[in-house]
Amino acid sequence: MSDPKSEWPLWEVFIRSKQGLEHKHCGSLHATDAQQALRMARDVYTRRQEGVSIWVVPSAAIAASAPESKDSYFEPMADKIYRHPTFYVLPDEVGHM
Amino acid sequence: MYTQAIDLPGQPAQGPASTDAPADDALQAAFDQAIGADRKIEPQDWMPEAYRRTLVRQISQHAHSEVVGMLPEGNWITRAPSLRRKAILLAKVQDEGGHGLYLYSAAETLGVSRDAMVEALLCGKAKYSSIFNYPTLTWADMGCIGWLVDGAAIMNQIPLCRCSYGPYARAMIRVCKEESFHQRQGYELMLALCRGTPAQKAMAQQAMNRWWWPVVMMFGPSDTDSVHSAQTMKWGIKRISNDDLRQKFIDATVPQAELLGLTIPDPDLKWNAERGHYDFGPIDWSEFWRVVNGDGPCNRERLETRRRAHDNGAWVRDAALAHARKRAARARQAA
C-alpha cells in the first residue's frame, strides 16, 4: 500500500506571529510543493490567528550542527567573559553606563 | 518539529544515528544524566532504542486517536441543531485533524515514516484510544464527548507538556491550548440541554449514563496492572500515574455534573472526607480489554471508514504529486 516514492515531501514551517517579530519554527508537514505547503501550513498551524506570515522550507534543505559537536562549537565561548558588559567593574560615580 | 530529514552534514540520510549505534556507556550515561536533570531530549540526541520505540508507539497511537476521534463527531456535523453549533463542531473536528498532524510530525522526528504509521493503523496493528469505539447515538453525545472525553484527555495531556522528549512536549502544548475550547463547548452544550425541555434533559442523562464508565476507563489500567507505566515514568514520558489522573478527573467532574443536575451512574460514588477524594465503584476491566482488543461496539466500523477514506483518497494524493512534478519540470524548462 505504501510506496515510499508516493509519500509527499516534508516541509518545515516557520511563522511570524506578528509584524515586527521574527519567523519562528513551529512544526512540519507533508506537501507536494511549496504552494501547497503554504496552504496546508495556514490550515494546520494558524487556525487561531497565530501568524501574519509563513515560511516553508524543504526539511532536507536544512543543515544542522551535530549534537556531538556541541562542545567544540559552543564551549570556546564560555571563557570569553570579557565579551559581557558585567566583566568590567567601574566606579559607582560613573553611574549607569 | 525538527524532523529526521534534517540531516547532519556528511552523514547518511537514514533515520537518526542513534537507532543503530551500539549502546555506548558514555552515551547512555549522558542520556541518564539529562533525564535525571529533567532536561529535554531532542531528535538528534542519542537515546536508548527502547525509549525511541516507546515514544514511537505512544505518539503514533496518540495521533491515530486524534484522527479516528474525528469520526464519532463527524457523524453529527450535518445534523447539528443550529448554524452556531455546526460551525463549532466543524472547528472542533478540524482541530482533531490538526492535532493528529502535530503528533504524526512529532513521531516522524524519531525516524518512522508517516506512511508506515498510517499503514499500522489501517491494518489493525496499531491501537488508538478505546473511547472512539463507542457510538454517538444522540446530539447529547456531542456534549458528553466535549465535556467528558476531552476533559479526560486534557487531564492526561497536561502532564505530557512536560514530557522529556522535546517534539512531543511542544506538540502537546499546542494541543492543550486548543482542547480547552473543546471541553467548554461540550459543557455549554450539556448546559443548554439540561436547562431545556424534560426530553432534552433526559437525553443528556442518557448520554451521561452511556459515556461515564468508558471515560473513566480512558486513563488506562490500574497502576498495578499497567505494563508500561513504571518505565515511562522513569524516562519522564509519563508524569502522573493512571490511577492518580483518574481520581483527579472524577474529583473535578462530580461538581460539574451536580451543576448540570445530572446523576453520575455509579451508586458507590461518594465523598470521602478522610481521603479528601471521591470514592468510586469497581471498573469493569473486562469491557475495557474487550474494546481495546477489537471487539467494542464500533471497532470494525471505525477502521473500515478510515480504510475507505485512505483508499478513496489515493488518486488525489497521486494526482497532486504528479501535478507538482509536472509544474516543477515546466518551471525548469522555462528557466
Overall description:
The complex is a heterodimer of chains A (97) and B (335). By secondary structure, chain A is α+β, with helices and mostly antiparallel strands. Chain A has helices spanning 34-45, 70-74, and strands at 10-16, 23-30, 53-58. The longest helix of chain A is centred in the middle third of the chain and has 12 residues, at 34-45. Chain A is elongated. The model of chain A has no long low-confidence stretch (mean pLDDT 90). A two-stranded antiparallel sheet of chain B has the order 1-2. In chain B, helix 4 (83-108) runs antiparallel to helix 7. The radius of gyration of chain B is 22 Å and the shape is globular. Chain B starts with 24 loop residues before the first helix and ends with a helix. The interface between A and B is medium-sized, with 27 and 41 residues.
Features:
heterodimer; A: alpha+beta; 2 helices; 18% helix; B: 335 residues; mainly alpha; two-stranded antiparallel ribbon; 12 helices
Question: What's the short version?
Answer:
The complex is a heterodimer of chains A (97) and B (335). With 97 residues, chain A is of the alpha+beta class.
